Amino acid sequence: MKYIPSIAFEEMSGSAKGVTAAKVRGRKYIRNRGYGGGVRTSAQAAVKSIFKQLSQSWKNLTNAQVLAWNALAQTQAGKSVLGTSAKISGANLYSRLNYWIVFCGGEALSNPPALQGVEAPTEAVVTLTPTKFTFELEGEPDNAADLKLIIMASAPQSNGVTRAYGKAVQIAQPLEAVCEEYDIKEDFDNKHGAPNAAAPKVFMKYFFVNTKTGEKSGEMLTLVRLDEDAPVDGE
User: Fold this and answer.
1) Which of 40, 20, 42, 41 is nearest to 31 (CA)?
2) Which phi and psi angles does 152 have, rounded to 5°?
3) Angle (CA) 138 164 13, round 5°
4) Is the distance from CB of 137 to CB of 122 less than 8 angstroms?
5) Same domain as 61, residue 14
6) Are 132 and 204 part of one and the same domain?
7) Which of 15, 139, 149, 224 minimizes the number of CB atoms within 10 Å of its CB?
8) 82 three-state secondary structure
9) Side-chain half-sphere of 86: how many Cα atoms within 13 Å?
10) In which domain, by residue range, is 209 found?
11) 8 and 48 assigned to the same domain
12) What is the bridge-based pairing of β-strands 78-79 and 147-153?
C-alpha cells in the first residue's frame, strides 16, 4: 500500500524500518517495503551457490592476490543500473570472471588472468515449429576450444510484445562453440512451456564465454516466431 508523505520526506528515498520512500513521475510516496519471494528455482539456487562459493574463496586469497585483482579491476569498467560506465572492485571482477569458469566446470582462479577479449558469435539459424526448436551458428570462432556457447531465451510472448530480451534466461547447459545444429526444444519447453498461436514469439540472446579467463563476449540478439512444420513428402 502507498502513502502520500509529509514535507518531512521531501528529499528522502530508499528503505528503512519496513517502509520505502520513493518518487515516481514527480509524485512522492511511502509504501510498505517489499522483500521479494522466498521461493527460488533450481537454476537460481545454482547461481547463488556459485557466488556464495566465490565470496568465501575471495576471503581466502593472499594480500598480494587481492591487490592484483584490484589492479586489474582499475582497467575494467562495468555498467551501472542506469546503463552508464562504472568502476568495479577487485572482488566484483573476481566473481564475474570466476562465475563463468566455475559454471562451465572449471576451478576458480586465485590469480587474475591475462584478459584477451572474446569476439561475439556470428548470426545463427534458429528454427521454431510445434515439433522442433533448433539453433545453429553460421560460423565458428578461431579459438573455439576455449569457448562455450550460452543460449538464453524468453518465455513465449504474444504478437503484441515488441521487445522482451530482458526476460531471456539460460535454457541449456553451456554448449560447444561449433557449427552444429543443437536441439533446444526439450530444454526450452521444460523451462518455459511450448510456444503456441497465442504466444508465438521468443526473444533470444546468445554469447560466448572463455572457460580459461571467464571473459564474456558481446551478446547477440535474435527474435524467432513459431512457424508451421515442413510438410512430409507425399502429404
Assistant:
1) 20
2) -125, 150
3) 135
4) yes
5) no
6) yes
7) 139
8) coil
9) 11
10) 124-225
11) no
12) unpaired
* 154-205: pLDDT as tens digits: 999 999 999 999 999 999 899 999 999 999 999 999 999 999 999 999 999 9
- CA distances, 193 to each of 125, 182, 187, 223 (Å): 21, 18, 9, 17
C-alpha cell at 187: 530444454
Residue 51: in which H helix or E strand, if any? helix 42-59
The residue with cell 513428402 is 233
Q: Are 214 and 101 in contact (CB under 8 A)?
A: yes
Distance CA 163, CA 120 (A): 21
**97: nearest Cα among 89, 108, 88:** 108
Q: In angstroms, what CA-CA distances link 55 with 30, 38, 138, 211, 213?
A: 34, 21, 38, 19, 18
Pick from 204, 210, 226: nearest CA to 152: 204
Backbone φ and ψ of 24, nearest 5°? -130, 120
In 3D space, the residue among 167, 23, 188 whose CA is nearest the CA of residue 9 turns out to be 23
Q: How many residues does the chain have?
A: 235
